[in-house]
Design goal:
The protein is an alpha/beta fold. Helix content is 37%, strand content 19%. The chain has a single domain, classed as Rossmann fold, CATH 3.40.50.720. The chain has an 8-stranded mixed beta sheet with strand order 3-2-1-4-5-6-8-7, with helices on both faces. The radius of gyration is 16 Å and the shape is globular.
């Protein structure tokens, strides 16, 4: 497939690009600093630009079969990045008849709020990520209202190492607490979903209980 990756120079994004190109997908990345991809830059089509630039986004979307969005907001605590970029992206996907969208948000978005474990729910979320997730909620609402074949993926809190237990993927969070996941597991899940279409027009919460 021809796939645009937004957020390709971030921790999850680089792993998505690596995994997708290893599986022979034709990847385009929209990036302000494509040199951050290092050796991966030779394996992809580079569309240099900003995800908030309407012209750059439109040029990158044209001709794709799908989009994977793994944008991050860095160290800011409040942002409109996610909703602004998603609004532009959805308009361009409609314009160029690109149907498939896989978007990573995270634990704290939608009904996953309060399902990340004590430390995340009562310390990290209110002190550090609440403002970001207010915009991710707006982002998710835009996606749900779109006519794309969307999948929203909400990872648990990132940890460097992979947990020993099985990865859980749930569409109903009732009674579920997922505390951790590695970036590699998230990237692999996103590329798997691109190929397998298991959760079309669903939001899926992924991670480990311990």
């Amino acid at each position: 497939m021809r796939v645009l990756v937004l957020g390709a120079t971030g921790g999850v994004g680089r792993l998505v690009v690596e995994g997708a190109t290893n599986r022979q997908h034709e990847i385009t990345v929209l990036a302000r600093s494509p040199q951050k991809l290092a050796e991966l830059a030779t394996r992809v089509r580079i569309a240099q630009g900003d995800a908030l630039d309407p012209t750059a986004v439109a040029n990158a979307v044209a001709g794709q079969d799908g989009v994977i969005s793994v944008l991050g907001a860095g160290n800011v605590r409040h942002t409109t990045l996610f909703s602004e970029t998603t609004r532009m992206l959805l308009a361009d996907m409609e314009r160029f008849s690109v149907r498939r969208l896989i978007c990573m948000t995270g634990v704290g978005a939608g009904e996953t709020k309060g399902h990340g474990g004590f430390v995340y729910d009562h310390i990290l979320f209110p002190l550090f990520t609440k403002g970001i997730y207010e915009d991710k909620d707006r982002q998710e609402a835009l996606i749900r209202q779109s006519r794309t074949d969307w999948t929203i993926v909400r990872p648990a809190a990132f940890r460097r190492s992979r947990s020993a237990g099985p990865l859980r993927a749930v569409t109903s969070v009732d009674g579920v607490t997922l505390r951790r996941i590695s970036r590699l597991e998230v990237a692999t899940f996103l590329v798997d979903e691109l190929e397998q279409n298991r959760y079309v027009r669903e939001a899926v919460f992924i991670g480990h209980e311990q």
